[in-house]
Amino acid sequence: MSISLAQLHKHLTGDTLRPIYLLAGEEHLLLLEAADAIRVRARALGFTEREVIDLEANGDWNELSMAASAMSLFATRKVIDLRLPSGKPGKDGAAAIIEYCENPPPDTVLLITSTQWSKAHETAWVAALEKAGLFVPCWPIKLGELPAWIEQRMASRGLNANRDAAALLAERVEGNLLAAAQEIDKLVLLRGPGTIDVAAMEDLVADSARFDAFKLTDAACSGDGERCLRILAGLRAEGEQVPPLLGWILNQLQLLARLSAQSANLSAAFSSERVWPARQGMYRKALGRSDRSHWERCLRQATRIDRISKGRGAGDAWLELERLLVAMAQPRAARLLAS
């Protein structure tokens, strides 16, 4: 069956474990901590041996059956820690997992972790696993949900923060759970248990927003012009230069232009461009706002900005980059671009 992370932690307070667990999702902190919680509980219940296996679709899936049948000289219970990063075991791997699920060996816990995941991954082998064990999806926390997550995590560490203080930290870390976790741990060291209000949060927490070109283009493709400008301002304040940023922006604009040219069959286009399923919704949203001519115009603007940034053209490269990003996010603003 499929359960939430909260349900998993409640389940782990019991005296028995299920024979199989699948933890999957692209929020790596949540996945890592959930996997650690299963390992810790398994050890407490006598599963003292652990065997780690890294496999992908082209791997030797006999390793799974050998690990399941191997007798231990040192322990009667063990954990098989199967790492499947892509979440795609392939035909042979899916068959091996289904066979394992049909007759799990006694005194063994199989823990499968996958760091790439979407609904498209949930095929026959996942259905077989849910019948024999537990599937725990680790979906990314949305920005609007982050303050509540921060409040809960702080409370678990003896800190009491009001909603405004939690919202401030959420804004500072820009949705980065690992950065939020690190800041909370630092607060515990600096202040110890107690109440933290907005003023204290301002004093104690550095601006940990992870500004980078990837988030810049993601914000633009998602239609969030305001966030684009905030990230760009952060990059500029950190000493970034325009030419390195343009490399990735050009890459994304070229991708959008190619995808737009194949808009009649986007699924095939995503496949040929090797776009991860988790990112396809963002690109669909961007492509739905404008046609191919818009993305080609944005490409011309990016080329112009490149010339300006290298002293080969007149103008303010940062200002023109702001205009480009806003036009990517909100095509109606394309009138701001040079003809």
Report on this structure:
It is a single chain. The chain is of the alpha/beta class and 339 residues long. It folds into 3 domains: 133 residues, P-loop containing nucleotide triphosphate hydrolases (Rossmann fold), CATH 3.40.50.300; 56 residues, Helicase, Ruva Protein, domain 3, CATH 1.10.8; 124 residues, Zinc Finger, Delta Prime, domain 3 (Up-down Bundle). The chain is 57% helix and 10% strand. The chain contains 16 helices and 7 strands. It has a 5-stranded parallel sheet, sandwiched between helices. A two-stranded parallel ribbon has the order 6-7. Helix 6 crosses helix 7, helix 10 runs antiparallel to helix 11 and helix 15 runs antiparallel to helix 16.
